[in-house]
């Protein structure tokens, strides 16, 4: 695990170069994704103003919207990582750059988009509601770091999966669609049975998305529940161990 972190830091400049290359060659794709999120923010704001929604309704709407933006980060980074590693693995080999540089760049690029749009959402929600919106900036930064730490190995594993399994893109797409219904975007966890919510919390992506929602709407509630955090750390450790073993088993540090 230490070696992976060292390699990631070593190749961080390569990742930034690839990010610029990716934006330059596929700028329409990223602009479209960012525009969709901005339109959703504007639509939500106008809808709440026109309907004269009360503060509770407004905070619930922004809660779900932030969750959807976090889901978009997960969706775009994981789905694009499969395509990136599958199509450009040979290029990484010629450049002597580990394959996960491409996967990391997808996570980083979509993180920037997410960070911008959530910042705008925080500004809009704070000024449009009275007292119910409470933003925990440290909590948000914590979940931002945790999300990056989680998504890099997951995106890399999916990239390797796509290299060897032709139908991987369809499997990944299907699982990401299912994810939309099991994370708190279409529903609010407080309105569900506690047992069912605890089952859903076993999903580390639920932890991330719900953490962003709470840190941007509920404030300090995002950093409570210590057992929940400990469970996530164990899950991340397991994912990194799986990533290390996959690298060793398939010798995919550089694609041949």
Automatic annotation (TrEMBL):
Cell location: Membrane
Domain of life: Bacteria
Positions of the ABC-2 type transporter transmembrane domain: 27-216
Transmembrane segments: 27-46, 61-79, 99-120, 140-161, 168-188, 226-246
Membrane topology: Multi-pass membrane protein
Ribosomal protein in keyword set: no
Keywords of the record: Membrane, Transmembrane, Transmembrane helix
Keyword Transmembrane helix belongs to the record: yes
GO CC aspect terms: membrane
GO molecular-function term, one example from the UniProt record: ABC-type transporter activity
InterPro entries, per database record: ABC2_TM
Descriptive protein name: ABC-2 type transporter transmembrane domain-containing protein
